[in-house]
Amino acid sequence: MLKKIVVLIILICSACQTTKIKNDNYKFSSSVVELGSIGNSKLSYNLNTFEPKGLPKLENNIRVEIGVVPYNKKLNKIYKSKAKYNQNQTKVAFIDSLPIKPELVTIKILDIAGLIQEINSDYNANILKLLTDTQNLQLVSSLAVSLPAEEIAKIRQSDAFYLTNNQYKKYTIALFKSGKKTDNIDINPETIVAYQISSFCWVKSIKGTWNVADIVNENNSCSGITKRKINEKKNNKDLFDM
Question: What pLDDT was estimated at residue 95?
Answer without folding.
Answer: 56
